[in-house]
C-alpha cells in the first residue's frame, strides 16, 4: 500500500474586466488524499466533514473529480484502477466564485495522470481542463498558480461541449493540443486579496446565462483598454490605487450579474479612500463572492463589506450573511506529494 496527496489551489478570476481571461491562484486548497491498496477493492471517493453531506455525488461517474479523471483516462484507452481509496479535504466553498469547479477538474486530471501512470505534462492536462470547464481562467490559475492570463485558440473555442460517460469517450488524438496560451504575470507583493463570501451559492452556469450574446463596440473597447492596463499595474511594487481602481471597471459581465447578487452595485461603487488601504472591489469569478484588492487594513475592509451585504436580503428575505478571508496569492499551482511507502 502507498499514499499520495494532490493539492490544488483555489482561484479567483475576471478581476473586473478580464472576463474569461484573468485568473489568480489563492492559498485556499482542495486536498485529495489517495491510498493505493494492494488488492482489487472497488475505488471509492469520500469527503471530510468540511463538505456538507449530499452536496457532491460520491458516484465515480457523477463526481466532478472522478468523472474528470475517467474522461482523461478513457481518452488514453485506460480507466481508473481498482484499489484507490480517495479522501477529499476541501477548504473551497462550492458555487461561490472561488473556482471550486476548476480545482475539482484540475484535481481530476492530476489524479488520472498519477493513478493511470500517464505522466502527461501540465500543458497537456490543461487541454483537458479547458475541454471540461470551457473557459481557461480558473483552471489555468489552479493548475499553474500565480496571476495568469490565457486565450483559447480557434480550435478550442469552436469545439462542441464535451459529454460525460464511457459511451462518449473521445480518443486523446482528437482532443486538441495547446488549446490555450497561458502567461504568468507579476503580482505586486503589496497587493493582498480579501474575499467576502456570502452564505448562498450562485451557479456559474446561471451567472453565465444572464450575459448578452452581443456587445456595443464601446463596451468592448472599454474592457480591452482596462484589462491591458490592469495586467501591468497589478505588478507594480508601489501600487497606484486610483489607476488600479479605474482599470478594474468592467462592462462585460458585472453589470448584467448584479441582479443575482444583492448589494453588489453598492460595493462596486466603493472608491480608493473609502477606507485606508482599499484599492477596488469586483466580483470573484461568477460570484457571489466579492474580491477586494487592498494594501492594508484587510479585516476592517472585509467587515465593512459584510455590513453592506447585511443591508440587503437574500431570496428567503433574510439579511445576507457572509464571511471574510484574507488570502495570499499562491504561485506554485497544483502538486502531487508522495507520502511514505508503507
Ligand atoms: N471538490 C469538489 N468535488 C466535487 N464536485 C465539486 C467540487 N468542487 C466543485 N464541485 C462541483 O462544482 C459545482 C460548483 O461549480 P460552479 O462553477 O457553479 O461554482 P464555482 O466553481 O465554485 O465558482 P466560479 O466558477 O464562479 O469560480 C459544485 O456545485 C459541484 O457540483
Ligand atoms: N470567467 C468565468 C469565471 C467563473 O468561473 C465567469 O465569469 O463566468
TrEMBL record:
<dbReference type="InterPro" id="IPR006204">
    <property type="entry name" value="GHMP_kinase_N_dom"/>
</dbReference>
<dbReference type="InterPro" id="IPR014721">
    <property type="entry name" value="Ribsml_uS5_D2-typ_fold_subgr"/>
</dbReference>
<dbReference type="Pfam" id="PF00288">
    <property type="entry name" value="GHMP_kinases_N"/>
</dbReference>
<keyword id="KW-0791">Threonine biosynthesis</keyword>
<dbReference type="GO" id="GO:0009088">
    <property type="term" value="P:threonine biosynthetic process"/>
</dbReference>
<protein>
    <recommendedName>
        <fullName>Homoserine kinase</fullName>
        <ecNumber>2.7.1.39</ecNumber>
    </recommendedName>
</protein>
<keyword id="KW-0028">Amino-acid biosynthesis</keyword>
<keyword id="KW-0547">Nucleotide-binding</keyword>
<dbReference type="InterPro" id="IPR006203">
    <property type="entry name" value="GHMP_knse_ATP-bd_CS"/>
</dbReference>
<dbReference type="GO" id="GO:0005524">
    <property type="term" value="F:ATP binding"/>
</dbReference>
<dbReference type="InterPro" id="IPR000870">
    <property type="entry name" value="Homoserine_kinase"/>
</dbReference>
<keyword id="KW-0808">Transferase</keyword>
<dbReference type="GO" id="GO:0009092">
    <property type="term" value="P:homoserine metabolic process"/>
</dbReference>
<dbReference type="InterPro" id="IPR020568">
    <property type="entry name" value="Ribosomal_Su5_D2-typ_SF"/>
</dbReference>
<keyword id="KW-0418">Kinase</keyword>
<feature type="domain" description="GHMP kinase N-terminal">
    <location>
        <begin position="63"/>
        <end position="146"/>
    </location>
</feature>
<keyword id="KW-0067">ATP-binding</keyword>
<comment type="similarity">
    <text>Belongs to the GHMP kinase family. Homoserine kinase subfamily.</text>
</comment>
<dbReference type="GO" id="GO:0004413">
    <property type="term" value="F:homoserine kinase activity"/>
</dbReference>
<dbReference type="InterPro" id="IPR036554">
    <property type="entry name" value="GHMP_kinase_C_sf"/>
</dbReference>
<comment type="pathway">
    <text>Amino-acid biosynthesis; L-threonine biosynthesis; L-threonine from L-aspartate: step 4/5.</text>
</comment>
Amino acid at each position: 500500500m502507498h499514499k499520495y496527496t494532490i493539492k490544488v489551489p483555489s482561484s479567483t478570476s475576471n478581476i473586473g474586466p478580464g472576463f474569461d481571461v484573468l485568473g489568480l491562484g489563492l492559498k485556499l486548497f482542495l486536498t485529495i488524499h489517495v491510498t493505493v491498496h494492494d488488492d482489487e477493492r472497488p475505488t471509492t471517493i469520500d469527503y471530510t466533514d468540511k463538505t456538507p453531506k449530499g452536496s457532491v455525488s460520491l458516484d465515480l461517474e457523477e463526481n466532478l473529480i472522478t468523472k474528470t479523471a475517467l474522461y482523461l483516462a478513457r481518452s488514453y484507452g485506460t480507466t481508473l484502477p481498482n484499489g484507490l481509496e480517495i479522501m477529499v479535504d476541501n477548504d473551497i466553498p462550492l458555487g461561490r466564485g472561488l473556482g471550486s469547479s476548476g480545482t475539482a477538474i484540475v484535481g481530476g486530471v492530476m489524479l488520472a495522470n498519477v493513478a493511470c501512470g500517464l505522466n502527461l505534462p501540465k500543458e497537456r492536462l490543461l487541454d483537458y481542463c479547458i475541454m471540461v470547464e470551457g473557459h481557461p481562467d480558473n483552471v489555468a490559475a489552479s493548475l499553474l498558480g500565480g496571476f495568469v492570463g490565457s486565450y483559447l485558440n480557434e480550435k478550442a473555442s469552436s469545439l462542441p461541449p464535451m459529454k460525460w460517460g464511457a459511451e462518449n469517450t473521445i480518443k486523446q488524438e482528437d482532443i486538441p493540443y495547446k488549446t490555450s496560451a497561458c502567461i504568468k504575470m507579476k503580482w505586486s507583493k503589496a497587493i493582498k486579496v480579501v474575499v467576502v463570501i456570502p452564505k448562498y451559492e450562485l451557479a456559474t452556469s446561471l451567472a453565465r446565462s444572464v450575459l448578452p450574446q452581443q456587445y456595443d463596440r464601446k463596451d468592448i473597447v472599454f474592457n480591452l483598454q482596462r484589462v491591458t492596463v490592469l495586467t501591468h499595474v497589478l505588478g507594480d511594487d508601489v501600487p497606484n490605487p486610483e489607476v488600479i481602481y479605474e482599470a478594474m471597471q468592467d462592462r462585460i459581465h458585472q453589470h448584467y450579474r448584479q441582479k443575482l447578487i444583492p448589494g453588489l452595485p453598492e460595493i462596486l461603487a466603493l472608491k480608493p479612500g473609502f477606507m485606508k488601504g482599499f484599492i477596488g472591489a469586483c466580483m470573484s469569478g461568477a460570484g457571489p463572492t466579492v474580491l477586494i484588492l487592498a494594501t492594508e487594513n484587510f479585516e476592517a475592509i472585509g467587515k465593512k463589506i459584510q455590513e453592506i451585504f447585511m443591508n440587503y436580503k437574500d431570496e428567503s428575505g433574510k439579511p445576507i450573511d457572509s464571511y471574510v478571508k484574507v488570502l495570499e496569492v499562491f504561485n506554485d499551482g497544483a502538486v502531487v506529494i508522495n507520502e511514505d511507502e508503507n
